[in-house]
Amino acid sequence: MQYRPLLSAVGLCALTVWSASAHAQFADKRNTATLYLQAGVAERDARALTIGSTIPMDWKTFWWGHPVTAHWDMSLSAWNSDRMEREGSRTIAVVGLVPTLRFHSKSQYPWFVEAGLGGYVSSKLYESREKRFSTAFNFGTHIGVGYFTGMRRENEWSVRLEHLSNASIKRPNPGENFVQLRYARHF
């Protein structure tokens, strides 16, 4: 019973990827929909495991001769943090939607850099040994660097730095920083 929302989210992501995959803008797979798995750690005592999907936006430009694209990043995460010794650990669900810009290296090179800013909603207030969020809605910003592999660049590997906080909507606002590793499969 407790896995029903997770299975529904995975099914929704798969359906979205399938329906968006026909809109590829490059001959290779670099700007197609993805499904991804991501794992990360916070500064001290929290971990995150994420599944998600990226959906390309119908937007493309060039900066300094390099293609720049945009996509939506939809995610469902489980954050696990250690609380006070007597309280044990706690896991919360976090749902995110983040518009992201991606700066691609020239077409023959498989590197990219990306940045995004979006919103996240958690099932409960995030709490660790040293931090306690005051809102379930938070903003997230990230920067990342990644690399494509595969014959048609259908595999994507990236490292991301992400900061989440409520932008001082309510105090306290300690924020949390994650280092994340992501594998995405393009369709």
From TrEMBL:
What this protein is called in its record is Acyloxyacyl hydrolase
One GO term in the molecular function aspect is: hydrolase activity
Q: Does the keyword Transferase apply?
A: no
Where does the record locate the signal sequence feature? Answer: 1-24
Keyword rRNA-binding present in the record's keywords: the answer is no
Going by the UniProt record, its keywords in alphabetical order are:
Hydrolase, Signal
Cite the InterPro entries for this sequence: Lipid-A_deacylase-rel
From what organism does this protein derive? Comamonas sediminis
Q: What is the lineage of its organism?
A: Bacteria, Pseudomonadati, Pseudomonadota, Betaproteobacteria, Burkholderiales
- The superkingdom of the source organism is Bacteria
